[in-house]
Protein 1
Amino acid sequence: MLIKPHQQLRGSLSIPSDKSISHRSVMFGSLAKGETIIHNFLMGDDCLSTIHVFRQLGISITLEKDTVYVKGKGLHGLSAPLAPLDCGNSGTTVRLLSGILSAQSFSSTLTGDASIQKRPMARVITPLRQMKATLSAKEDRFCPLHIEGGHLEGIHYVSPVASAQVKSCILLAGLYASSPTTVTEPFISRDHTERMLEAFGAKVTRLGTSVTISPCEELYPCEITVPGDISSAAFFMVAGLITPNSDLTIRNVGINPTRRGILDVLLEMGGDIKILNERLVCGEPVCDLRVRTSSLHGVTIEGATIPTLIDEIPVLAVAACFAKGKTLIKDASELRVKECDRIVAIHTELSKMGGAVLATEDGLIIEGGKPLHGATLETYHDHRMAMALTIAALNATSPSQLLGEECVRISFPNFFELLAELS
Ligand SMILES: O=C(O)C1=C[C@@H](OP(=O)(O)O)[C@@H](O)[C@H](O)C1
Ligand SMILES: C=C(OP(=O)(O)O)C(=O)O
């Protein structure tokens, strides 16, 4: 795809629905007894993988425009799949499912595309084995992941990583355990599982960075409206800030405190962003954002902030290239185990454009203010890289060629159409 530099982005847009919340709504709906109705579901490839897998597990799921009807069969209502469960490109699907499937009365195999088969699974295998689950994996750490379902015991797991996927996997297994299960994280990761499981009737208690779940008899169906995804909004937030003469209103953005790091950091960088119409949608805080062209300055991002903006770091690195001074990103080694090694990908591609970007073991150092020029850019089949590089290319001094842009359909199928409408 050829991307030519743009002069301005103006108008208003609704961004796609939240990927994390969409996944969980299908999963928990399948485990509840009765019909769960999900409005504004994200029809991106990752969430469609979750639907596909639950259909393989015997759940009837129907789609009507952006509404999904899930006929849940209860905590013990899933049936043995006839083939391996293909989770596509979705780490969330594999890891959350591994917790649920460890407690079933049948065996199953989880797998996915080439990228999924390289992502670390020891992080869920280790705690699930402590709960007495029986699992095996390629080299004991990669998909395909084979699970012999059975009886589980509650544990207190102190996780070495702040990962909502690890936490959610253990909490979901904990629904079925013979005693309460606690997960303690180094920093709080996104809490959609805790919020939504409570709405479905589970007993969840939180203390500091710990969450405890009680064994559960039954989950009750819900009607859910999924808010817009701040991780998708981030591309337009940065685009609006760095593209000259821009004025964008981004409607229906989820600003859950465990997800809004990108908003707070862009404000700290000097971004002109107004938070409008704050409201609650299905227990999740939501707002509209008005974003105008701004002069940004560099910042340091580390520690507890990292899990609140982990998926937004590729586009934050683009913002940093257009900011005055140095931006330091530390404690973000998790970026190395996403759809690709995002530290290598950001460093390689932004350097090709003339950006002053250094990769460190656990992050990036970016000296902003050097104009970016066009280049032939690789997406690494990573949706977030494709969209972040598009925003960089729009603001380069010459056209760029983006290779493999179709991966945006993982989380943001109409990304290029929306961008074209605003330019
Ligand atoms: O739980 C979730 O929905 C997610 C958690 C994060 O991953 P980790 O749990 O690996 O940090 C995030 O990067 C991913 O896009 C979605
Ligand atoms: C890392 C991501 O998702 P997942 O882990 O579900 O593949 C992402 O969407 O950036």
Protein 2
Amino acid sequence: MPAVVSTRLLLLVGDSLPLQKLSRVSRMAWSHSSVRFLSQVHHAHKPLTLASLGFKSDFETRDKSKNNKIEKQSSFEVPKSKVKAVRSNGIEAVGANKSLEIEAAPFATKSFSELGLPPLLLERLEREGFMVPTDVQSTAIPTILKKHDVVIQSYTGSGKTLAYLLPILSEVGPLKGKSSNGDGEFGRKTEIEAVIVAPSRELGMQIVREIEKLLGPSDKKVVQQLVGGANRSRQEEALKKHKPAIVVGTPGRVAEISAAGKLRTHGCRFLVLDEIDELLSFNFRESMHRILEHVGKRSSANTHGPKTPLESWAERRTIMVSATVPFSVIRAAKSWGHDSLLVQAKKVMPLESFPMSAPVNLSGPKPGSSSNSNVPAQAAELSLPPALKHYYCVTKLQHKVDTLRRCVHALDAKSVIAFMNYTKQLKDAVFKLEARGIKAAELHGDLGKLARSRTLKKFKNGEVRVLVTNELSARGLDVAECDLVVNLDLPTDPIHYAHRAGRTGRLGRRGTVVTICEEPEIFVVKKLQKQLKVPIPACEFTEGKLTVSEEEKTAKAA
Ligand SMILES: Nc1ncnc2c1ncn2[C@@H]1O[C@H](COP(=O)(O)OP(=O)(O)OP(=O)(O)O)[C@@H](O)[C@H]1O
């Protein structure tokens, strides 16, 4: 008999939580290979599996013969150049920079086939070299397939994009399974079924490329990008001509085209808000309001009798994603989602368990206060890849760029992102680096879409060694080879530090973050260190080497 699990479930993967915290929900723990209840279990003596929770692939049970075929196919050789990451420590990640080893690979589940994805999609994943799901993918994919609204929170570079794309592609477009909506067809519908919103053009285009890769060249038109800076009428024409099933865009452009009546999203089944905490910022307020009000909301002609707003939103699945989830996000998910669950790498918990008025304490519980692990307080701390190394280096303002140069040489960094806060200084920094023989380029919002794409391409293919940029590049930018992030100007808070830092050390790779600051700014670094709960020792670059300063060593010893 299958176990009965309430929709307000709490999954713990390889983690434990005090039992008293679990009173309102079904309690269970999920180890790497099995799932078991901690209490209130109807099958207390038998370990539960993903299947017994209904998390095992529908496709597997319904279409065994097809799945067998996939298993056989899985023995075909994946070209080495396509293998993205590997399970064990110390084995090299394949990419432009071979020296970047995977140090803390975030993989728990053995294969994507355990997660309930359709055969064709599994085939494409394998073809593209995605062999093993990351922790957050293992947790998020079955939860979304179970039709829950979710907030996905996991550290930068842990694979959140595929964590939401795979459930969408399981139900939308040519890779979906037969059973996804009962129509028994793999053919395309003519409506938009998924809208993905991201705060920057670069991130929007990156998501489109990830989808296109899985769709393959013949089905590329199933997805369309609607990002700002590009020709709007051309985008509108393409929508009319290709009738994409998935659109990916920036808030302003999606809202604009929607308001003009050229984007029919009332039948949309998925709304993804990537980098949700950024999307909730004041700049995007109006556009986001339009999107949240219109996407997936059916017109009254399609409904039988009046519906409450919650009933209307229940038609779509709302997926909110970020490495940092401050309380504003919890509030938004409670308002715009339907019984949303917070999905982390090893946990799923109902948002209902978060009090509506709790303050978000990014540094964790205050000394003396009772710890409340129900509050996603350690948002910034949990958003940092565990393998990252952090340092700071004190210098005079006029020597910052030279310190950057010495830092790049000392660490023999091949691909560097340097963050600054103001565009003018950013140009000066590029000029100085180039004058000292380091190939550098600037990337910021004052540049046109084409110039931005060109620069990013050059950085990704190694033509540019140091990309000097501002907050524009802090979110979502995925350059696997990036081995060093430098803060030439201080970030404003731990959340901004975390997103900047997260451009390196992606998917368990090695990465270093160096904050170059002036003497009076040291207290800010110390504060960041405390808030983020990571050691940020002082360092110097002398004789082509990074050395942790004597002062720091003495302080540590004491
Ligand atoms: N299961 C996997 N196996 C191998 N590579 C993967 C896997 N999942 C994702 N990746 C790759 O890992 C990289 C990081 O993934 P992604 O950009 O989704 O991270 P993220 O968690 O969204 O990061 P951020 O918070 O910075 O946006 C990407 O290059 C992606 O293609």
Protein 3
Amino acid sequence: MKPISDVRVVKTSESAFIKPFSILFKRGGHEIKWDLIDSHNGVYVIIYNRTRNTLVCVKQFRPGVYYKSIPENDRPKEGLIDIDKYPPSLGLTVEFCAGIVDKNKSLEEIAVDEIREECGYEVKVSDIQKIISCRSSVGSSGSVMTFFYTEVTDQMKISEGGGLEHEGEDIEVVEYTIPQIRDIITQSEVLNVSASFLFGMMWFLTNKIVLCT
Ligand SMILES: Nc1ncnc2c1ncn2[C@@H]1O[C@H](COP(=O)(O)OP(=O)(O)O[C@H]2O[C@H](CO)[C@@H](O)[C@H](O)[C@H]2O)[C@@H](O)[C@H]1O
């Protein structure tokens, strides 16, 4: 992965990805204001590599995770962050291959694109199995996240993956064995993974573990 440097906090008023707004309503005659973020729906793909008995995941620098790793009293509201004191590695997450729903394509087609771009495997739409759709960030967004499952083999690997450079993506593909996954999800410290990752791992261990024993 390329080195991260010159990390600065700036105020944002316009964004193609995150749009703050509020909803006003009355409950029992009392007016309530609820602050929200309009954000894209998303797809997540749990990818099992049958050749090597591994789960294919992606590692990347997530600015929000980095920022929230800094103690609150040292987190600037604006300006440079001292990366010698707070190394960018604090913001590295492990995730499932995922993408926002911002194209006029089916969710399955978006999943296939993300698998190719991020992980370098060529998968057919018909090989994508839907697991479940649910809500994310119910207090602030309510976007729909849809989980898929697919299996790949080493023969289906067509590139290194890594994401689209013109979109600023710089993704490392990482593969975990089943014992490694068990280690990750049973740690007691704050993990640099999301609840969606933990859900997907638990789903896999519960429903597919028979493949791996
Ligand atoms: N907040 C943001 N600010 C600036 N640029 C952004 C952005 N979100 C996306 N982008 C841009 O959109 C590109 C494409 O994103 P992707 O569809 O690959 O989703 P990503 O893997 O970033 O996760 C995304 O989609 C998954 C699945 O919904 C979510 O879990 C995850 O939070 C979300 O970032 C990114 O490379 C980036 O250029």
Protein 4
Amino acid sequence: MGESRVLSRAEALELGPGWRHACHALLYAPCPGRLFGRVPLRHAVLMQMRFDGQLGFPGGFVDPRDSSLEAGLSRELREELGSGAAPLSLAEGDHLGARFAETPQRLVAHFYAKRLSLEQLRALEEGATKAADHGLEVLGLVRVPLYTLRDGVGGLPTFLSNSFVASARQQLLQALGALGLVPEAELRRADAVSRKGL
Ligand SMILES: O=c1[nH]cnc2c1ncn2[C@@H]1O[C@H](COP(=O)(O)OP(=O)(O)O)[C@@H](O)[C@H]1O
């Protein structure tokens, strides 16, 4: 997916027939711990290693049989994260924006974010190995390092130099800023360092 515009949920639904909708979610929890006893972890943010070796967020295509975008997202989360995802109940209010790429595929990628307690997030991590897709479409959950180490490279800049599926990298950066999980200046620096090559 190349450059894309961010639309509201309503604008994306007005695109009409012929568009496929996919929904993905950033699940996060406040995380008071410190790495090596000194580097604040800030929050635990979940992404997943996909079957194709790329990083992405849990979620997937909404099926015409799903009663809403959020119902489709909940179904995908159960497939990928297991039954522990059932009580998450993502709602319209958790929608952060939708991106569409002007490619022949006509795909709209909706993005949601939901704050959990650290206990809920840990339970999801533990249960995810029992999900239907585990070891198949999903190789494992990973936490995103939200800090930058003293060398200016380790942590978030190195994480951002991985390969991300579709708009997942843009979604991650947008959400970390919008949710206040990483200060904007630090995000811009991490983005620039990772693009320059480490
Ligand atoms: O984290 C993501 N953010 C944005 N788009 C994604 C992400 N993961 C997958 N996609 C895109 O969303 C669409 C659905 O892919 P996905 O593999 O999640 O669906 P599925 O689980 O229903 O097969 C594909 O076009 C894919 O490139």
